Amino acid sequence: MIWSKEETLSRKEIEEMQLARLKETVARVYEKVKPYKAKMDSLGVKPEHIKTLKDLAKLPFITKQDMRDNYPYGLFAVESDKLNRIHASSGTTGKPTVVGYTANDIANWTECVSRIACMGGASSKDIAQICFGYGMFTGALGLHYGLEKIGATVIPSSTGNSEKQIMYMKDFGSTLLVATPSYALRLAEVARETGVDPKKDLKIKIGLLGSELLTESMRAEMHKVWGDDVLVTSNYGMSELMGPGVSGECEKLCGMHINEDYFIPEIINPATGEVLPEGEKGELVITCIKKEALPLIRYRTKDITRLFYEPCACGRNFCRMENLSGRSDDMLKIRGVNVFPSQIEEVVLGFSELGPHYEIVVEREGYSDKLTVRVELVRSTDSFAELSDLTSRVKNKLRVVLGLDAKVQLESPNTLQRFEGKAKRVKDFRSNKE
Amino acid sequence: MNAKQLSVFIENRQGRLGEVLDVLKRNKINIISLSLADTTEYGLLRLIVNDPASGREKLSAEGFSTMLTDVLVIKIEHKAGSLQELLKILSEKQINVEYMYGLSIDGETASVVLKPSDLKKADKILVSEGVKTMSAEDISKLN
After folding, report:
1. For residue A302, which of A63, A57, A36 has the smallest C-alpha distance?
2. Which of chain A's residues have a Cβ under 8 Å away from the Cβ of B11?
């Protein structure tokens, strides 16, 4: 079901709406957000220079560093009496990234998530179990409000206590699961360990996965453990922009539709900042055009993707972003080669002898980087020849995909760490990671 | 007659073998014979136990990668040359030994656990030569 009529506007109508909202946002930010005014002034750009959507490229970027430099409220465009909510993203180093919402922002956020939930097949009939951590993280509350708005029954079960999650799922008849891809797989594992067959004993028919990349092999793995008839979609967002609800996949599974009446996407060359033509791969930059509290302009997401503008068979005209091929943040540089963990995941999931969990270990030996991929052997053998054949096949595949030699280390099932939130699969022990 | 061998994949990490043995002990599974072979990174523990199916189930439930393999448990006389004679029978018929280890039952008979390249054919040859093998049932009674 298509939730709102804006999703089916023509390209021309979308662009007219975007331009009007962009002009309004830039003028307001220039007036109210001093650090951004200073950036614009240093480039000699004034709000009145924005006459077409192409003029967006004249505006300066905002990065995560700007948010840190202006911690906590420096980039907000409203006074505190207008604020209705604060969220923060987990800062792995130093202070967290703080984001704020007015009442209208929360209503708009809810609207965006409602659309994404409908794209992923949700309806008022669903019983939605939200296995994202509730708290400062935007994921859980974002999905919570959006699913409630479409009339679904929400179970705010949060993360943790996986056995109890399975019990809720079974006893309450949950039909929709909200989780990270890795936690969704973990839950299926826990179900089986406790004698529950996720395909027969549970009613999950929809997986709304987010906050981590969903690779195609991960999706295939989801079908393997949860059933072929489960609609597994990924959705995208980040707290800086709003939270979940920036974009999501529809049932056609051909990329994530961006809520273009709220966000303008651009793809840039991450090294030069230059805007790339449609269809080219680069860093996603997002401008918020209908936010009151924290209207970020040209925010560099560090996510690598590309955009497609042709209308989708689902009936929506909002452009689509390809499922992420990695974050420039997650990228590892090993012996001078760029490596995305998602590339390693694709290889690991291609082997039926191996489980879906893996760990990437990078160390320095002398002057050289050493890459080890730890995997779990789920289908055992009685023969050393087969074990060494398996490791060499995995190694060869990694060499083809990464252009690097890696050591493959076989482990027993359930040896590697499991995650409830974002999986941390990389252990980089190098002091200098370049 | 085939017997079932329980094979367990073990990473080379301190205490892993002990963990396998602990599971077997807790579930009262008796080890009749074993062979432990390793490379620099991992090993395979091959076991003849009184109840291989239950052994496998219990070990899998505790997170071990396991498998049941058909092997031959062959009775031979406890005297010099008997193993050589047995292998001669097999090698004349182009059957290779993938691996083998001993299993001692009492003072008079010895046995070997043998994984031949072609189990069905090896079994047939041994039957026609009058060599005695032990079935899974025989082994379960060795308790």
Report:
1. A63
2. 410-412, 415
